[in-house]
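does this look right to u?? zinc ion version
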Amino acid sequence: MANPNDYLKCPECKQDNTVDFWDRHTKAEAGIKDDNQFISAGASKDEHDEVQSYFRCPVCNEEIQGVKLNS
Ligand SMILES: [Zn+2]
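got this back:
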């Protein structure tokens, strides 16, 4: 798993944000309070593919597939 301080680039707005920031923004937008129901943006492509994860970009707020996040 990626480091929380690693950067992931948004395929829509091309801005880089940390894994931690992607996670926190996505959880806030989706109202997720239970970490057990949440896969980190820093997870591997295989993990994202398996659970069909989606994230919210902290900058443009577009919904981004987890598999498209790995830089
Ligand atoms: Zn974006």
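The helical segments are 19-30, 45-51. idk if thats expected tbh
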